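Batch queue: ligand-bound targets. Current item pairs a single chain with deoxyuridine-5'-triphosphate. No template structures supplied; prediction is de novo from sequence plus SMILES. Inputs echoed for audit trail.
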Amino acid sequence: MRDDVEVLLRRVDPEVPLPSYQHPGDAGCDLVTTRSAELAPGERTVLPTGIALALPDGYAAFVHPRSGLAARCGVSLVNAPGTVDAGYRGEIKVIVANLDPRESVRFERFDRIAQLVVQQVEKVRFQEVDRLPDSERAAGGFGSTGGHAAGRPAVPAASPEESASTQQTAAQQKHYVAVGADRASDLRGQ
Ligand SMILES: O=c1ccn([C@H]2C[C@H](O)[C@@H](COP(=O)(O)OP(=O)(O)OP(=O)(O)O)O2)c(=O)[nH]1
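Prediction returned. Tokens below.
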């Protein structure tokens, strides 16, 4: 077992509960809002958490969304994960967004809105070179290994023209973007 890292904390709101881990082994401890708020679909706001930290040098804290809130209410963080620098002494704030297209969401004072993950971070010194060492991936990125459907079993082959026109019709009818499609070709050269 590793020793816990001591982090100095100041309560900006004297009543705010100290952030705590819900279970042993949890990576994040919950952050609450000290202000109630209601967000209409698509709306965002900056919520105060009532705490300020002095992280040790070489550490940073990351403000992550809570998956339960995301799955149940469509609540996410606009800048996920938010980065709290070791030198930051201000109150930690959380930029929440309601991504649900229909329902408003309401937060009451001390509702848990996000989680804070404290991590060690490296500081690097960039060394400019004319050529980078070779690697297997090379410059492939942005979906170069296929869309999320790349792992699905193959479907009976349709001609490329037939399959493209079927996808286009379905997408047009339902107004969706078929993320399973391999769009690497669209991004090449960008
Ligand atoms: O979700 C967040 C993200 C950041 N911060 C605080 C701590 C962080 O140290 C500071 C600056 O954040 P960041 O560097 O992401 O903001 P920036 O837009 O680049 O501003 P700056 O010019 O102040 O660096 O704001 C939060 O309280 N919550």
